[in-house]
Amino acid sequence: MERRADPTRSALIVIDMINTYDHKDAELLVPSVEPVVPVLADLLERARGADAPVIYVNDNFGLWRSHHGELLDTALTRPHAHLIEPIRPDSQSLFVLKARHSAFFETPLSYLLSSLGVGHVVLTGQVTEQCVLYSALDAHIRHLGVTVPKDAVASIHPHLASAALEMMERNMGARITTAKETEFTPRAA
Q1: DSSP states of 153-173 as a string?
Q2: Confidence of residue 59 (pLDDT cuts 50, 70, 90)
């Protein structure tokens, strides 16, 4: 039996942060990712401390035979491993592979959130004006509450990221905040 979604139960969603950074636009993305990593590391620690589900949703980079461990191992051997190490999944983290921009598009994320009784998602990661934006829209149409800590998301084009954050707030009712202002309600015993 599926649990009923609790609007106060949040999951921390980490989008596309397990990354080799050997793709188009990486040179524009990396400078935006660098200040996000310590903010996200702190947010991960706080979410885990509150027993909130932590779910990494990551591109598979077209490697259909891969799994999350292989993606992580590969990313940790690349020149930008310092961007992954502080935010790497722990043994309790959940992992969903995606093939397109949205964390929800043809993935089991909706079912997973429902089975965990989650009614609210905190979206972090990259890219604000692409995958974070489309994931926020898909969360909104699934009647999930959405928070986006603006200092825990990275962008390729800052002006588009600002517009995306405004769209998420105005059109999707997302709460745009900072990581320090983001709270996780501890699970009731």
Answers
A1: EE-SSHHHHHHHHHHHHHHH-
A2: confident
Q: Is 89 helix (H, G, I), strand (E, B) or coil?
A: coil
Taking the model in full, what pTM does it have?
0.94
Could you write out the DSSP letters of every residue in 115-155?
A: HTTEEEEEEEEE-IIIIIHHHHHHHHHTT-EEEEEGGGEE-
Q: Which of 46, 71, 20, 69 is nearest to 122 (CA)?
A: 46
Give yes or no for a contact between 100 and 106, defined as CB atoms under 8 angstroms apart: yes
Q: What are the distances in angstroms from CA 10 to CA 25, 55, 91, 187?
A: 31, 11, 19, 10
* Residue 12: predicted pLDDT: 98
Tally DSSP H helices, then E strands, for the chain.
5, 7
DSSP 73: H
